Amino acid sequence: MVASTSKYKYIVCDPELCIGCQLCEYICSYTKNGEFNSYRSRIRTVRVDEVLITAVACRTCENAPCVIACPRDALSQDVDTGIIRVDPTKCDGCAWCIEACEFGAITINPRTKLAEICDGCENEEDGPQCVLICPKDALEYTTPDQRAQRTRRKLVKTSLEFPQKAKDPR
């Protein structure tokens, strides 16, 4: 799997917690399109193998390849949030952005023929709806730095607990 190249917040999934229920897809399609249709979602659940499932959404890459690849300048990236926006007056559905995205996080809406990309539910007061609805808390809206810090804390905690467990004869 490709590591994120972002300083911005994005939705990340912990595959150890994801059960593949697709609720994230359904709430996304409902929030964005008013319909429960996993094919209209801007987040996708992906079965990596028989037991490993994860969800993929836009990683708000710095110097986003999708923006660079767009021949019509239909995609732009917000410098403060990293959110990729699609200008419907310029997008012609050529799908170059899809080819450029290493995460497979962009789709073309079959009805409008426009690119669709996760925007972190920027217009929703309580943020990404998929993160809120995930029954296993597998989704998180975070930055790579925040994830790294959490991982370091977890490793330190585990390393401090291990010697104590080894000494405890119970």
Automatic annotation (TrEMBL):
SUPFAM superfamilies: 4Fe-4S ferredoxins
Domain of life: Bacteria
Record keyword Iron present: yes
GO MF assignments: 4 iron, 4 sulfur cluster binding; metal ion binding
UniProt key word Metal-binding: yes
PROSITE patterns per record: 4FE4S_FER_1, 4FE4S_FER_2
Alphabetical list of InterPro entries matching this protein: 4Fe4S_Fe-S-bd, 4Fe4S_Fe_S_CS, ET_IronSulfur_Cluster-Binding
Domain 4Fe-4S ferredoxin-type: 8-39, 49-80, 82-111
Keywords linked to the UniProt accession: 4Fe-4S, Iron, Iron-sulfur, Metal-binding
PANTHER family associated with the record: PROTEIN NRFC, PROTEIN NRFC HOMOLOG
Name of the protein described by the UniProt record: Putative electron transport protein YsaA
Originating organism: Candidatus Brevifilum fermentans
Source species taxonomy: Bacteria, Bacillati, Chloroflexota, Anaerolineae, Anaerolineales
Gene: ysaA
